[in-house]
Amino acid sequence: MVNSTTLAHLNTNMDHLSTVLSSYAGRDKAIRSLAFYLQLRSTTSPDSSKEILALAKQLSAARLVSRQFNHVSMLKSCRQILQAFNSGRIGDPMEFFTGAAVTGIYTVYGIVELLAWLSDAKLLSFDSARLYKWCLYLWLSALINGIIRQLRIIYRKRIEKSQEDILTLVGLSSDFISGLNSLPHKILWAGKLSMRQSATFSLLASIIGFYKLW
């Protein structure tokens, strides 16, 4: 029989989960985590790997569609950054400009991805494969700026006061390791990681992102 303490914890966790999944970021991180878990699972289930990967692909497609409703908020963030710059409220310059770069790059990423998505649907005549490749370059550029920003924050706050920032750095670095592996050019470890290794890094980054929202 479930005691009152256990029931209280269960109710609290359900409330937390409901709150997280009610937000765009929460749903995105949850779907992303599930998609990469399925990719990882497919490497250990050869008999059903095709079906598992098909489901993972559907989840990734759902995230893509959901991101198309994020353009307005990204443009708003760019406006707020510009206002902060014009008013001189930038704080640490390196932290501000790398953060601004991340926001700006993701804003451009969203527009390029929208064009690629519409081209995939045959509504536009652009080369979708080429556009998606540019999305990858933009994403990696944003990750590099994010990593530099986190290193700067950790340096300023000192390691003993930067547990959450270190966790963010691990997540960004994990995404970068996996993302660089997808580059078409043979630089560094591009193309050298197995699907299992790449999915593991992506899943780690996804879980960290979801955990931070909890």
From TrEMBL:
Domain of life according to the entry: Eukaryota
Protein name, as recorded: Uncharacterized protein
**What range does the record give for the signal peptide?**
none
Which Pfam families does this entry report, sorted A to Z? PEX11 (PF05648)
Provide a GO biological process annotation.
Answer: peroxisome fission
One GO cellular component this record assigns the protein to is:
peroxisomal membrane
Q: What InterPro entries does its record include?
A: PEX11, PEX11C_met
Q: Does the keyword Transmembrane apply?
A: yes
Q: Do the record's keywords include Transmembrane helix?
A: yes
The protein's location, in the record's own words, is:
Peroxisome membrane
Q: Where are the transmembrane segments?
A: 96-119, 131-148
Recite the UniProt keywords alphabetically: Membrane, Peroxisome, Transmembrane, Transmembrane helix
